[in-house]
Automatic annotation (TrEMBL):
This is DUF112 domain-containing protein. Residues 1-162 form the DUF112 domain. It comes from the Bacteria. Keywords: Membrane, Transmembrane, Transmembrane helix. The keyword Transmembrane helix applies. The chain crosses the membrane at residues 39-65, 77-101, 113-130, 193-214. It comes from Mesotoga infera. Pfam families: TctA. The keyword Glycoprotein does not apply. InterPro entries: DUF112_TM (IPR002823).
Length: 225
């Protein structure tokens, strides 16, 4: 998105894709600016803002930490640590990036087979280190194969990751809600807040296709006229 906006607003848009440094600066700056904001919904609502926070939330759940409003009361040290590290990381980003730019460039020049081998190796070590179980390695390899097939078939991985992270939380809160309402689903559609959220969810899922259909119908009617 940032790249597209920069290209549209630039006076030399024809140079983009041909070495214009602004095409690198814009998305990188936008990415760094968005990192801090992704932690707000992740910690407050337990909804990851990106794949990085999704992985972190998964790790937190593994250690018994439940993201949500209560985390600021039950684990204030953790929250303070997260934001302190974020501030420190942004401060150290420039000197470390400047000093390590040659090393990063060397990694980019490495063969893909070498990089992928290292990634798989460290993934296996990390999977085994959690519970010292070989079964976790097999699970990691299975999901790695599934992810590879998803990439080959152009299936987005983000929804699957969000489902794995948010699935248990949704089930737990649904049970709590059903217990409070005596097993009735009416409260989910009649209460103001839940009704607004339900409408927003429907609009998110159906708004895009509906708008595209309306545009096609409108353009078709114009052509007929």
């Amino acid at each position: 998105v940032a790249y597209g906006v920069e290209k549209k607003t630039s006076r030399n848009s024809e140079d983009f894709g041909k070495g214009n440094i602004k095409g690198v600066i814009a998305p990188t700056s936008a990415n760094n600016a968005a990192l801090g904001g992704t932690w707000i919904p992740a910690l407050v609502f337990g909804v990851p803002g990106d794949t990085i926070t999704a992985i972190v939330l998964g790790a937190m759940l593994m250690y018994g930490l439940k993201p949500g409003p209560l985390i600021f009361i039950e684990s204030p040290d953790l929250v303070n640590g997260v934001f302190s590290i974020a501030i420190l990381a942004n401060i150290l980003l420039i000197p470390i990036g400047y000093l390590g730019i040659k090393a990063f460039a060397f990694v980019l020049k490495m063969k893909t087979s070498v990089v992928l081998t290292a990634v798989v190796l460290f993934s296996m070590i990390g999977s085994f280190a959690i519970r010292n179980s070989y079964f976790d390695i097999y699970v990691m390899l299975l999901f790695g194969f599934i992810g590879f097939m998803f990439e080959r078939l152009s299936v987005p991985l983000a929804p699957m990751i969000l489902g794995l992270i948010l699935g248990p939380m949704v089930e737990d809160n649904l049970r709590v809600g059903l217990i409070k309402t005596g097993g009735s689903m009416d409260q989910f559609f009649t209460r103001p807040i839940s009704l607004v959220l339900f409408i927003l969810i429907v609009l998110v899922f159906l708004g895009g296709p509906a708008l595209s259909l309306l545009k096609k119908a409108f353009s078709k009617s114009k052509k007929e006229e």
